[in-house]
Every structure is written in C-alpha cells, then in structure tokens.
Amino acid sequence: MGDDPEYREFMAMVDDHGTALWAMLRRLCRHEQDAEDAFQETAVRVWRHLASRPRLRNPRGWLMTIGYRVFLNQKERVRVNEELADPPDLRIDPPPEEAARNEDAGRVHSALEQLAEPVREVLTLHYVGGLSLHETAASMGISVGTVKSRLHAGLNQVRRMLQ
Amino acid sequence: MKCEDFLPLLATGGYFGRWRARWHARHCSGCAAAALMMNELTEDRSLSVPLPTHLRQRWQAVVPDEYHSAAHRSAATRRTRSHARLSWVYAAAALASFALLALPPLIVRRWNEPATAPPVAKQVVPGKRGPQHDQPLPETENVATPAKRGPGEIALTLIDADEQFAWLEQHVVELAGDVEQVAEASQKLAVEQEIDELLRRHADW
C-alpha cells in the first residue's frame, strides 16, 4: 500500500498542510473534540475524492475548502458547548520571547473569538487557513467583495480590541 | 492613510495598497505592532505548532477500511467489465459460427446460378403523338433478365481447394514473369529513346 501513489499523495497532503488544516479547524470549531472529528471527516472525504482529482493545482486550497465544508456540516449537527482548550505546552521553560509571542497570539485569538460568526470564519480561512481572497470566497460561496468587506470589518474590530 | 485602514489595506489592498500599508507601518509603531500580532494568526499553520501525532494517526487510520472498500469496488468494476467483455466475445463467436454455417450454402447456391444476362434495352414504341413534333425520341428502359431457377432447387458443387490454390499460384507466377518482362522492355525502350534523343541533338557530328 505504501507504494501506491494515491496513498502517498494522501499522506503527503497531511504532512504538508495538516498543521494548517488542524489550526483552521480548531479556530473554527472552538472545541477540541469537534475539531478532531472534523479533521477525521476531512480525511475521509479527501481519501474518497482524491482518486477523482488526479491533478490538484492547489492542494492546500482544496483541502481547506473540504475542511471548511466539513465544519459547516458539523455545525449543523453539533452545538458548541465548550470553550476551545489550548493544547498543553510540553516545553518546560519556553524562552521569554516565545512567551511574549504566545501572549500576543492569545490576545489576537481572544479578539477573534469575539467577532461575529461570518466575519470570524472569513478571518480564520484567510489568516489561519492561508486561503487567498478568491479561495475564501469560493469556499464560502460568497463573492470576493463580500469577503473583502467582512475582512475589513473584522480587522477593524480586532484592531480596536487590540489597542 | 488612517491607522484604521491599515490592516484592511494590508489584507485586501492590491500591490500598491499593500505597499502603502507597509510604508505606513514603518512610521507608525502601533500599526506595526498590530501587523505583527496579526501575523501570529498565521503562525498556527507554520512549523511552530506541529500536527499532533495522534491526529496524523487518525488521518492514516482512514485509509485501510476505505482503501479496501475502494480496492473491492475497483475489483468489482473490473469484474463487471470482464463480464461485459466476455459477453461481447460470446456474441462475436456466435455471429462467426452462424456466418460459417450459413454462408457456404449461400455461396454454393450463388455459384451454381446461371450468369445473369446483361440488361437489355427494350424499345417501347411510342404512341400517337400530338401535332407538335418536339416530343423526345423513343424512350428506352432497362429490363433485367429474370432468373430461370425454379423455387426450392439447390445445386451443390464440390470445390477442391488444393487444385484451386495450385491454379492460382501458377497464374501468379506467370503474372510475375510477365511483369518482369514488361519492366525489362520498358527499360530498354527508355534507353533507346534516350539514345535517339542524344543522336538527334548531335546530328551534326
């Protein structure tokens, strides 16, 4: 099975973009277990459709779009009832500059959490998922102009919250 | 540019817009700090937060069951295709055997039929014509001679294949000899024509 090109492509996808997918799903789901379920469901869908997409021009965008769709489906079924718990930091003594960075990241993420759902999704797909404006629009089924306006509004709110 | 517009311009602005935003950030420490903080969002997907091992295992765990079912599915598809191919083979074989059984009697029957006579022209005498004599000439129509074999009569003729092949071979050899002779003659003729031409050109010699 390891020699199968389809399998190799499947595993290369998680090795190359799995981190981004996981980060995006965590931010979208806001619940660790839901994010893991969405991650696995994404894997199932990717495996199912990989054979029909022999040449992916943008595997990252394709993967993130599937992840976002899984999140949307899951959102219809599951109610978010628990706050997202940050993963435990296994490092004993993080360097001071990293500690400062973690603090900044925490502020940004908490600001992000306070945004309205559509705006938060746009920011998460664009920044955490790394999708371009066009890819974000395609994933969400909205126009690029709407993405821009939501991004504009969301960033202004984040900016105000960070000040 | 206002500080409010900095982050949106950095995110959604074109090349010039992003350049303006970066230029603004050089002179505005607040916006520069905001940009750095927004970069933290993208850090999640970089190497700073590696994918947990158990998630990679979950990703990998999707494969075996799905893979086996996919392999099963493709095997089933192959089986269906091979069945379809087999049915085509059977149909072709049945058609070929029908042709083998049905064609020889037809050929033999045709062989024994008398050669049909060429169509004959039957003159039709024109009737009375009108006062104008600009009518066409007497018409003719083609009528094929009908077969004279009675219904149900079948004549069988045995053909010796070896004899036929020997006859054909002999004729082929004869034809090949003729072709060689013709080729030789044509070469000679060409040479003669060339010599004649040369002699005509240099008649003064």
Would you write up a description of this structure?
The complex is a heterodimer of chains A (163) and B (205). Chain A has helices at residues 5-29, 32-50, 59-77, 96-113, 117-128, 133-140, 144-162. Chain A folds into two domains: 1-80, Rna Polymerase Sigma Factor, Chain: A (Orthogonal Bundle); 99-163, Orthogonal Bundle (Arc Repressor Mutant, subunit A). The model of chain A has no long low-confidence stretch (mean pLDDT 79). The radius of gyration of chain A is 17 Å and the shape is globular. The longest helix of chain A is centred in the first third of the chain and has 25 residues, at 5-29. The relative contact order of chain A is 0.12. Chain A contains seven helices and no strands. Chain B has helices spanning 6-12, 15-27, 29-43, 53-112, 161-201, and strands at 120-123, 140-143. In chain B, helix 2 (15-27) packs across helix 3. Chain B is 66% helix and 4% strand. Chain B is built from five helices and two strands. Chain B has a two-stranded antiparallel sheet. Mean pLDDT of chain B is 71; it is low at 118-125 and 137-146. Chain B folds into three domains: 1-50, no CATH class; 51-101; 159-205. With 205 residues, chain B is mostly helical. The interface between A and B is large, with 46 and 35 residues.
